[in-house]
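call fold target=ATP synthase subunit K, mitochondrial
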Amino acid sequence: MSYVILGRAIKSEYLAIGTLATAVGLGVFSTSGKKEAAPPSSGKSPVETVKEAVKFNASSSEEEQFIKKFIEEAEKEAKH
């Protein structure tokens, strides 16, 4: 079977191949690109770096202390 596109007969297998090639091409293109350089290590562990980068959205100082205490306890349990 063929379809008439812009006055020309195009076979359905060519349309299928074109569709698959376009989908694969877009996938490859979207995953490629400029890679960001990793920040230079400052000698800190990744956990310490994340702790400094993450901000708590606590509504009070008590809530912030509770979160910090919970994290410390979870780290102690993870080390055992």
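return ok
The first strand starts at residue 2 and ends at 5. The CA atoms of residues 2 and 13 lie 9 Å apart.
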